[in-house]
Amino acid sequence: MGVQLAKNAVDLGIVIRDSEASLRFYRDTLGFEHVADIAMPLGGGGTMHRLNCGETLVKLVKFDNVPAASNPPGGLVGASGYRYFTIIVTNLAEVMGACEAAGYKVAISIREARPGVTIGMVEDPDGNWVEFVQNG
C-alpha cells in the first residue's frame, strides 16, 4: 500500500523557545515566506508561525509555557532522533555567508561531502542544525 501523497513535500514542526529569534533566522536570514500565525490548539496554547520553504511548510511552534527541556547539544552525534534537516540550494556560499554575518553558529563550514556535492550546516537559535546542500 504505502503512503499516498497529497503534497509533494514534508511539513516540518519545530518547537521554539523565542518567536522573534526564530523568525529572524528562518524568515529574515533564510528568506522563508511568513504566511500566517495561528493559535496553537495543543500543548496548553501558543502560536504557530507558518513559513514556506518551497513546497515545505515549516511550522515554528511557540508554546505559552516553554518546555523545560531543550534540544540536546552536539548536532549530528549529540543525541538520537531528529537532528537536522536539509535544504537543497543553488547559492550555498551566499546562504552560509548570510548566516555567519547574522551571527549564527556555523556547525560545519562549506565542504565537499562527495564529488559534486557541497554542504554547510548552521545552528538555528534553538540549536537545531540546518544543512544546506548544493549539487554540481
Mean pLDDT: 95
The CATH first-level class of the largest domain comes to Alpha Beta
In spatial order, strands of the major sheet run: 1-4-3-2
Strand fraction equals 35-45%
Count the domains.
2
Our measurement of the CA-to-CA distance between the termini, rounded to an integer number of angstroms, reads 35 Å
Write the CATH homologous superfamily of the largest domain. Answer: 2,3-Dihydroxybiphenyl 1,2-Dioxygenase, domain 1
What is the element string, with H for helices and E for strands? EHEEEEHEEE
Short description:
It is built from two helices and eight strands. It folds into two domains: 12-63, 2,3-Dihydroxybiphenyl 1,2-Dioxygenase, domain 1; 75-135, 2,3-Dihydroxybiphenyl 1,2-Dioxygenase, domain 1. It is of the alpha/beta class and 136 residues long.
Description of the structure:
- The longest helix is centred in the first third of the chain and has 11 residues, at 19-29.
- The protein is 15% helix and 40% strand.
- A hairpin with a 6-residue loop joins strand 2 (33-39) and strand 3 (46-53).
- It has two helices and eight strands.
- The strands form two sheets. A four-stranded mixed sheet has the order 1-4-3-2, covered by helices on one side. A four-stranded mixed sheet has the order 5-8-7-6, covered by helices on one side.
- It is globular, with a radius of gyration of 16 Å.
Structure characteristics:
single chain, 136 residues, alpha/beta, 2,3-Dihydroxybiphenyl 1,2-Dioxygenase, domain 1, 2 domains, 4-stranded mixed beta sheet, 2 helices, 8 strands, 40% strand, globular
